[in-house]
TrEMBL record:
<feature type="transmembrane region" description="Helical">
    <location>
        <begin position="334"/>
        <end position="360"/>
    </location>
</feature>
<dbReference type="InterPro" id="IPR008276">
    <property type="entry name" value="C_nuclsd_transpt"/>
</dbReference>
<keyword id="KW-1003">Cell membrane</keyword>
<feature type="transmembrane region" description="Helical">
    <location>
        <begin position="192"/>
        <end position="211"/>
    </location>
</feature>
<dbReference type="Pfam" id="PF01773">
    <property type="entry name" value="Nucleos_tra2_N"/>
</dbReference>
<dbReference type="InterPro" id="IPR002668">
    <property type="entry name" value="CNT_N_dom"/>
</dbReference>
<dbReference type="InterPro" id="IPR011642">
    <property type="entry name" value="Gate_dom"/>
</dbReference>
<feature type="domain" description="Concentrative nucleoside transporter C-terminal">
    <location>
        <begin position="192"/>
        <end position="391"/>
    </location>
</feature>
<protein>
    <submittedName>
        <fullName>Pyrimidine nucleoside transporter NupC</fullName>
    </submittedName>
</protein>
<keyword id="KW-1133">Transmembrane helix</keyword>
<feature type="transmembrane region" description="Helical">
    <location>
        <begin position="300"/>
        <end position="322"/>
    </location>
</feature>
<dbReference type="Pfam" id="PF07670">
    <property type="entry name" value="Gate"/>
</dbReference>
<dbReference type="InterPro" id="IPR011657">
    <property type="entry name" value="CNT_C_dom"/>
</dbReference>
<feature type="transmembrane region" description="Helical">
    <location>
        <begin position="269"/>
        <end position="293"/>
    </location>
</feature>
<feature type="transmembrane region" description="Helical">
    <location>
        <begin position="93"/>
        <end position="117"/>
    </location>
</feature>
<feature type="transmembrane region" description="Helical">
    <location>
        <begin position="372"/>
        <end position="393"/>
    </location>
</feature>
<dbReference type="Pfam" id="PF07662">
    <property type="entry name" value="Nucleos_tra2_C"/>
</dbReference>
Amino acid sequence: MNIVFFVTGLLFVSGIGYVASNNRKGIKLTPILKMIVAQLVLAFLLLNTSIGIDLIRFISNGFDALMKLGISGVDFVFGGLENTGVSNFFLDVLLPIIFISVLIGILSHFKILPFIIRYAGLTLSKLNGMGKLENYIAVSSAFLGQSEVFLTTKKQLGLVSKKRLYTLCTSAMSAVSIAIVGAYMTMLEPKYVVVAIVVNILSALIVANIMNPYELADEDDLPLTQDETDKPAFFQMISESILDGLKVAVIVAAMLIGFIALMNLVNELFLWVFHLSFQSVLGYIFAPVAFLMGVPQSDIVQAGGIMATKIVTNEFVAMLNFKEIANGLSPKTVGIVSVFLVSFANFGSIGIITGAVKALHEKQGDLVAKFGLKLLLGSTLASVLSATIIGVFL
């Protein structure tokens, strides 16, 4: 039965992608099939082998230790408020992001993280035949996040075509930032967070190959050289990383306050007018998609509601809602929905990516704004594909 739903989920993604494609005759099946096989192999290794399970446990324990170290700093400043027996999301989950942001800054400063990203991207390009820049962005987005990643390629950003720009932005929106992975792991099972990060890289490129195929000559594949002249001193980098982490924590907190309150308002209005909550309505709309992905029929409305909440608001709001109902869902539903939630594919991200690109190159930012909804469609299809892949092994 899992194979049947793998086929239905794959047909859904490829069918919608084909309808929305800007060059249907240019779609190449070979690299797409190679990447799907690679996803299946990676998902199997991570979820069903002792090496994969041990690796996920190691990563999970590592992030858990980092979160605790981050909380030690929070404890010093806030006097142990987070240890009073009442969980405080801002103190326990968001503020430790500051510490993880510092670690990422250190790894980047000493070129450890860029080295990993660069050669992982080059390896990936051998698999799919796409440009080095496309694969670099796909991998680096999983580490740096959807807006920060463009800072590392600002020289190339103004030189890429509209088609290439769409692929780059789809990868960015389909990824997450490693700085907030620890926060995700407090709301979802860590193994699904890790698997989603890996599989999403390929899902974004698969969807881009369907919706946005193009030929790339060798001379058009821009070098990945970066400007080192403005590299900050070590302690300046530490300070900037701390402030960057604080900005992320505060922005996420503000988004949660606004979106959760707005969602509650809309729910109240729907209950008053229709005697049915807004999330229930969304659940019925997205239930067929959840079914095609392999969610058991008894859970499809609840799963569809969580999926829609993520698209309409953001992944944090959806994860918090999902955490409240996860115990009443089947393990397969939990796995599929968890993987779907681990990405930045939502309406708010259209503005974030547009703003990030526009800040570096105004003309290219205007192009991103024009294909914003198509960008959301592509990144959402990538999330559906990743969740479908995981469902095969649950």
